[in-house]
Amino acid sequence: MHMDYTKKQGQYLAFIYYYTKLNRRAPAEADIQRYFQVSPPSVHQMIVTLECQGLISRVPGQGRSISLRLTRDQLPDLE
Predict the structure, then answer these.
(1) Euclidean distance between CA atoms 9 and 49, whole angstroms
(2) What is the C-alpha to C-alpha distance for residues 12 and 32, in angstroms, rounded to an integer?
(3) Is 16 exposed, middle or buried (0-12, 13-18, 19+ CB in 10 A)?
(4) Domains parsed from the chain with CATH numbers
(5) Do residues 52 and 43 make contact, with C-beta atoms less than 8 angstroms apart?
(6) pTM
(7) Scanning 2, 15, 33, 43, which has the fewest C-beta atoms within 10 Å of its C-beta?
């Protein structure tokens, strides 16, 4: 199945899925930053990109509000 996201975007989406499943709440951008070991602006830009592509939704100004708009079978495995 071909999805319209890059490998890196797929890893972010998979992380959001598994983090939410394990912690029963969405990750903060700081959680994503720690996992991928990238800068805060890099994480924020990725979140904005994923939202613009319709892959996630979030509530502006509300922390931990990221939710996936894909099902588990549309996501890659987390590497």
Answers:
(1) 9
(2) 8
(3) buried
(4) 7-74 (1.10.10.10)
(5) no
(6) 0.93
(7) 2
